From TrEMBL:
Taxonomic lineage: Bacteria, Pseudomonadati, Bacteroidota, Sphingobacteriia, Sphingobacteriales
Family: Belongs to the adenylate cyclase family. DacA/CdaA subfamily.
Reaction it catalyzes: 2 ATP = 3',3'-c-di-AMP + 2 diphosphate
Highest taxon in the source lineage: Bacteria
Assembly: Probably a homodimer.
This protein's encoding gene: dacA
Annotated protein name in UniProt: Diadenylate cyclase
Function: Catalyzes the condensation of 2 ATP molecules into cyclic di-AMP (c-di-AMP), a second messenger used to regulate differing processes in different bacteria.
Originating species: Sphingobacterium pedocola
Length: 264
């Protein structure tokens, strides 16, 4: 046993260790990008499909093996088609990290470790105050928080803003006489990217009948993307939070603040 272990270690090079570490970093990086998104469920489905294929092949079930094998043979092309948005975002994210970051990664990483909680608390505060104010005045609002700004998805259906989040800005946008109050505000990295964006509505038949367009749009956009959404009801002033097609209703501003700190 010791001799076998020695033989294995004998052919192990420093480059092999670096190779393993780089693969681990890439896997972790990809997972961090798709974590909490629908892509994770799709990937689990792919692994399950491949597992079934291995089982039927081992059991020599020829018909099923041929059927599953046909899908596996074109698996790479199918994965590109299924994950085209995720691949696009992955490459876009890499490009932004290389060319558009204002600070070097090393220093921003060290700074974020020390000040993440404090910074997030300060950045979330104007959002919470705006939701509190709009809830009291029963001003309808829909805020979408996305990891990435997909121009083709959001900008074509809304007005491009690109401004820092502030209480007054959000209240001005959703003021009932504002030309931008209909639709959603899309927020990326605590910047208001677009206003009056049109979102896909959920087709679920299990939604309560009292849900209006804002709630259905919030559920719809979280069903098809990694985004999360906050809704302020115009009828009741109730604050709700949507994620992965599920909605948490009747939240207090304090509860919403806790959720946003964790999600953002």
């Amino acid at each position: 046993m010791d001799e076998l272990g020695f033989n294995l270690l004998e052919g192990f090079r420093l480059l092999d260790i670096i190779d393993i570490l780089l693969v681990a970093v890439i896997i972790y990086y990809i997972y961090s990008l798709i974590k909490g998104t629908i892509a994770v469920n799709i990937l689990l489905g792919v692994f399950l499909f491949y597992g079934i294929y291995l089982v039927v092949k081992q059991l020599e079930m020829r018909l099923l093996t041929e059927i599953f094998g046909g899908f596996i043979s074109v698996g790479s092309i199918a994965l590109i088609v299924v994950f085209q948005q995720e691949i696009r975002r992955f490459l876009l994210h890499i490009g932004k990290n290389i060319s558009l970051r204002r600070k070097k990664f090393f220093w921003s990483f060290l700074a974020s470790r020390r000040t993440t909680q404090q910074d997030r608390s300060e950045e979330v505060k104007p959002i919470i105050e705006a939701c509190r104010s709009m809830s009291r005045s029963r001003t309808g609002a829909l805020l979408v928080f996305s990891k990435y700004f997909d121009e083709e998805y959001y900008q074509t259906s809304g007005e491009y803003v690109d401004a820092p989040v502030s209480k007054r800005l959000l209240e001005s946008i959703f003021f009932k006489n504002s030309p931008l109050h209909d639709g959603a505000v899309v927020i990326v990295d605590f910047r208001v990217m677009t206003a009056s964006s049109v979102l896909p509505l959920s087709d679920s038949e299990d939604l309560p009948p009292q849900f209006g367009l804002r709630h259905r749009a919030a559920i719809g956009v979280t069903e098809v993307s990694e985004a999360v959404a906050v809704i302020v009801s115009e009828e009741t002033g109730e604050i709700s939070f949507a994620k992965d097609g599920n909605i948490n209703m009747n939240l207090t501003p304090e509860e919403l603040e806790k959720i946003l700190r964790e999600e953002l």
